[in-house]
Structure prediction request, 671 residues.
Amino acid sequence: MTLQWLILLPLASSVLLFLIGPRQRLLVSLVGLVTLLTNTRVVQNLPLHLTTRLWGQQWMLDELGQALLLYAYAATALLIVIAFFADQAGGFAPPAVAHCGLLSAVVLLRAAPLSFLLYASALLLCALTVRPGSPEAARGAARWLIAAALPVMCVPLAVALQQGDVTLPGQLTAADVGSWLVWLLLLSWWTLFPLDGTTRLWSKDRLAVGALFLWTVKDWTVLYLWLRLWQQYPALQAESPMAGLGIAGLATAVFSGVWAFVQSEPSGVLACAAMSALGIAVQGLTAGAGPAVQGGLVVLATRSLATWLSGAALAAWPLAAARDAASEVNAPRWRKPLVFGAFAIGILALAGLPPWGGLTAQGQILPWLAAEQPYVRLAWLSGSLGIVLGLVRCAWPLWHSEAGPSADPRADLPLLLVAALLVLMLWVGLQPQSVAGWLARLFGKLFPALTGG
Amino acid sequence: MLSTWSLWLERLSSSHAPELTAGLTVCGLVVLVLGDHPLALLPFLLQRGLAIALLWSALRTPLSSMSGIASIAIALLWIGGELWAWFGQRRTATADKGAALPRIGWPIRALAAALAMLLANGLLGVEFVQRLPPAAAQAAVPLCINGLFMLLLAESGWLTGFGILTVADALRVAYALWQPDPLWWGLWAASDVIVALGASYLRRFQQHSAWPTPEGQG
Prediction:
């Protein structure tokens, strides 16, 4: 019963949230949070490694799957809170909660091709998180539909090629074609170069919580699915598609980073910085060596935390500015500096600047890359420079943006979230080894799948 | 009643396959030329119907039914969305829809359709494609090329949805050659409906952002 509960409850809840409507943002947020809390309890109580047969399929939960689900629920809950402060909860919560329901099925299903097919549906739902009002965001969402939908049959086809006796023209083998099909899917779902502008369009004009969701929940899930596929079908792992993915990662890191310089809004800089960090993480994950994979995971983890911090800061900014505007003439105006500092720290962490783990992780990745070291370092630096300049460029208009004064003390609530995330970010900066150790414990068993060992 | 329909479709797919294939290609080209115009929905739905009819005899009943149900759901979603948008537009009577989106004119679309036809014709002569059964190749290749051109010319979620579903139909024709799994087929059909939902949402969203608000008009 608990299995169905885990899948059907969020789906039913998302329908309810949709019916409640976007105007009831407090109610929508509360129902969404309660659903995710219930699912968290169910996942914690579900026995590990116990295979169940249901709806004609085998279902099982392992440690990594449990960790991913708990992470996804916690991240979604956090993003619902950010969406509440940014006045986007009504549009964001229903698809995000539905995504969690489908994600439960994806993680629990034993058949990897079916999981990929099901996850495509969950990704397509994410297009519904786009907020009305911006034509750019609609263009981004339309591109996201293409990126999520077109490779939908890649993995089932790759597996069918593996299992069937299929003759292919020339020197091609079924495994070659299969591994390139998987490459295409990863490129699309991670929106690596040349698709890296997809989510940037969502957040070009203003903060888009749907995009934050894709960067911090979807990207980890795609990594998890990829690892599972390789565990089940090692023949789909080939050197040249991985090298191609690494090149796409490098191009994403550089182009997205440099593109940050021309962004006029802070949310655009955040989008470019998040995509640039993803590019470096992908380079580490595809380098084929344990330390590089660990470095890639650290970059991905730092990226998630930094994205939440900067996103929460942007959501809190208008309220903080309004509270500061209402304070008395001689009273200290601390809210705007705090929120701006949090946003800047998040962006700098995404740019891979010290003291956050990004730079150390980049050092771990670098020796294992096929390209010449100084050139790769230079390319990464150009990306980082673009992000820092983009931050400097958007800082002035952000700081001087006007807000009507508000004396309502409830407007300080988002500052609590920003402060908590800031403390966490600073702790990660001071204790980078703890994050690396925790990730190694969680993903350690899967390292051989990534390193070909 | 249903069995009569089923028999009729089976006879149609086996005896009129060339006509159905030609119809698929023509409908795809018409959608390409019409682009974001609301009337593009009609040839698109006809194209999907023709694809289902073409595959009817090659597939078992549950698979054909799944495709049929998904197509009906897509049609309802899009027709409903269009009606909703039409009533919304009537409420904000002075809306200037012409200014809503930058549009690629129909002559360029017609040229693109001609190019798509040429490309499809060329691809049908490639050795790898010629290994496929001729009927499947003649249906899948033009569908795939038309779908990709739709995606290339898409300026909105609407044509993007058409393009994605057209490419999916082409892949479905190819997949039908390999004893398709009902579960995969069903999930794929469900994904199609979600694509249609997303495209419909984005279309309303774009129209909404393009229409002047009552305050703006006043």
